[in-house]
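User: For a teaching handout, I'd like to show students what a predicted protein-ligand complex looks like in token form. I'll give you the sequence and the SMILES for pyridoxal-5'-phosphate. Please answer with just the structure.
Assistant: Understood, here is the input followed by the structure.
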Amino acid sequence: MEFIDLKTQRSILGSKIDNAVLNVINHGQFILGPEVSQLEEALSKFTQSKHVITCANGTDALVMVLLAWGIGPGDAVIVPSFTFVATAEAVCLTGATPVFVDVKEDYNIDTEALPEAVKTAEACGLKPKAIIPVDLFGLPADYEKIKKFAHPLELKVLADAAQSMGAELEGRRVGTLADATTTSFFPAKPLGCYGDGGAIFTDDDELADSLRSIRLHGKGRDKYDNVRVGLNSRLDTIQAAILLQKLTIFEDEIEKRQRVADFYFDNLPSSITLPQISDTKKSVFAQFTVRLDERDLAAQGLSKNNIPNQVYYKTPLHRQTAYKTYPQSVAECKMSEKLSADVLSLPMHPYLSDEDQALIANVFKTMFS
Ligand SMILES: *Cc1c(COP(=O)(O)O)cnc(C)c1O
């Protein structure tokens, strides 16, 4: 059994992927070749976002938006403590300071804690500039509430959708829910390539222009006319060609993920806490993450039965060596700490067989009866 099965998808796409890669090798436009703009158009159609700017990875995508907004030293950016490190790392790389805020039981940023985070930033002499909600495990954050709080204070909202490509809030797809949205095509993400890749989504024309410049060394008329400090951050044409093929089966894969999730919801014992998905949202279940008191014992029990499992994330960012000196919004991020101690992610991918699903449910039933 695989935790995330990329081999089945590979065999389904088969020669389509081979031909797509071969075609790039033959036409030879490895950097910003035609497949890159084709993919940007396809993703624009898929998300309904006006602009899509692909780049080298999901971390650069975050850095690029912060740079384009002019965020840097002396500025504060509010980020959840319970997330993958890249969310906060991107803030630090611009010279700005992350202010950690707690999350709720649905794993996403606690909107009620935002006012306190702004106060904390100001008490540190920092100017709050933006909030980065994370769609953790594939579930969109509460963007309407976040924007309602952020926009009157002139705070930008940057959605870290590295885990939630294809997810929805009130019928709208991720990519259109914030001032800008970033994603990652790291192989294990819901829409992954065969290496590193990322993209930025926005309806803002000016931001899109800046981002196209930033990804190419701050180009003006061309890359030898440098109007700002930028990065070298393009999506390889080969990766774009692979993603174009994967996108053709992505909707079907999202449905299949939902079917696996539905099985888990119906068959896992009631003594464990299942993901909380409000009925205005559609998750893509980048991870199916449950909570249990005896997490480490349960993990051992699953492993003994050859059921792969992972803990995302064992340490909240405000406790990490590199980040513990940065301000925390409230003295502690209590829920983030609790989650780090009791979350466990189960196998989740579109091709998890009925037999494997049944085995997982049975092992849980045996452990918890
Ligand atoms: C994977 C991930 C990133 C970074 O993406 P990369 O493409 O690996 O740089 C950022 N934020 C979150 C929440 C992620 O899960």
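For the handout, you might add this sentence: Residues 57-59, 83-84, 86-87, 134, 160, 162-163, 184, 186, 196, 198 surround pyridoxal-5'-phosphate (CB under 6 Å).
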